[in-house]
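User: Could you go from structure to sequence for me? I need the amino acid at each position, not a summary. Structure tokens:
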């Protein structure tokens, strides 16, 4: 994806069995539940012909636009109390000014409102395309992204079938911001790959992807300590046009020390940071943190999480000290596992089909039809 995908070990335990024929879902009925907002004390809802119902299905008399608030006893919409709320519209629902298709559910939590969009999977994918890449990229690259995003979503749907929702709408899973940036090319890419997923051994794969690998994709076990035969690192010289092929970041010693302590690393008067080891792809596996508190050795992926995925864009970097700052210079953006989005763009420009692109970044997989026609 455009940023990085954070892996949750809980979803790795199971595998999604590939269904075909009468066992497969219809493309018109397969839905996905996406958490589109969390932690807010209130949201503003609008749209054409909006109907609100409570958790028992009873209609709530309210005019729109309306404000949904978290209350001590639950939530309210337009001042009317409810335990939970479902919002329907024959068109597009507006949540804080953003358009969403499907049915919106709002429920209170101890940390604020939880807003879930239950939407047809194919409609979700159309909205997702321009959040993850650009639909103006070569169509074969856009089609590859559509297949990967569909595969990822269906895997997570099965893995989290007992949860309130299947996907986050952030870099934790796949970035999704509703339907406002849909366009014709996104529709075409999704429609021309309708129902297609990647499988391995008859099961839907865990289809991780990232922005740019910087020259070589990564083995899954180097990031998450779990081996997938189809998530093996491959040479990739195709993402050189990525704006993140080379990046530089300067962080003051004081700021980084605060970050490290907040991340559970015992440091005091930070002195130096140096790579201890690298793997075969060139990425750092561990870092040595030297301060007056002593020496701490931490995994590079933990360091990247502490500093911020958008700050330290990959674990393939060099670090130097300039006065009271650390200067990081690296290549690539993301964890490096699976599809390299910018690599897919270049391969499409070089004439490769989306099938070629997918088989390259997910070796040993098969492209199959999940939905019944």
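Assistant: Here is the amino acid at each position, in order:
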């Amino acid at each position: 994806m455009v940023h990085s995908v954070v892996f949750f070990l809980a979803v790795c335990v199971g595998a999604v069995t590939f269904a075909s024929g009468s066992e497969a879902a219809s493309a018109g009925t397969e839905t996905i539940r996406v958490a589109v907002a969390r932690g807010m004390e209130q949201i503003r809802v609008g749209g054409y012909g909006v109907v609100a119902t409570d958790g028992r299905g009873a209609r709530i008399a309210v005019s729109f636009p309306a404000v949904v608030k978290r209350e001590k006893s639950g939530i309210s919409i337009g001042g009317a109390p409810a335990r939970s709320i479902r919002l329907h519209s024959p068109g597009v629902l507006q949540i804080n000014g953003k358009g969403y298709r499907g049915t919106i559910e709002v429920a209170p939590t101890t940390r604020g409102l939880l807003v879930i969009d239950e939407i047809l999977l194919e409609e979700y994918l159309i909205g997702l395309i321009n959040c993850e890449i650009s639909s103006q990229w070569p169509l074969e690259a856009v089609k590859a992204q559509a297949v990967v995003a569909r595969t990822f979503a269906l895997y997570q749907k099965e893995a989290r079938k007992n949860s309130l929702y299947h996907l986050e709408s952030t870099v934790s899973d796949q970035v999704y911001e509703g339907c406002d940036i849909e366009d014709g090319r996104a529709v075409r890419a999704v429609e021309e790959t309708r129902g297609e997923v990647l499988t391995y051994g008859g099961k839907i794969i865990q289809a991780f992807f990232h922005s740019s690998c910087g020259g070589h994709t990564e083995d899954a076990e180097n990031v998450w300590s779990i081996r997938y035969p189809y998530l093996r690192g491959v040479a990739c010289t195709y993402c050189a046009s990525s704006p993140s092929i080379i990046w530089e970041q300067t962080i003051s010693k004081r700021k980084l020390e605060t970050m490290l302590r907040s991340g559970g690393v015992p440091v005091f008067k930070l002195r130096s940071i140096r790579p201890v080891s690298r793997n075969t792809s060139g990425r750092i596996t561990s870092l040595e943190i030297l301060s007056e508190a002593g020496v701490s050795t931490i995994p590079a992926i933990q360091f990247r999480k502490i500093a911020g995925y958008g700050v330290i864009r990959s674990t393939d970097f060099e670090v130097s000290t300039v006065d009271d700052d650390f200067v990081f210079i690296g290549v690539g953006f993301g964890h490096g596992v699976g599809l390299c989005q910018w690599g897919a763009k270049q391969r499409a420009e070089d004439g490769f089909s989306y099938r070629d692109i997918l088989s390259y970044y997910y070796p040993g997989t098969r492209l199959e039809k999940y939905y019944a026609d």
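One structural detail worth keeping in mind: Residues 2-23 have pLDDT under 50 and may be disordered.
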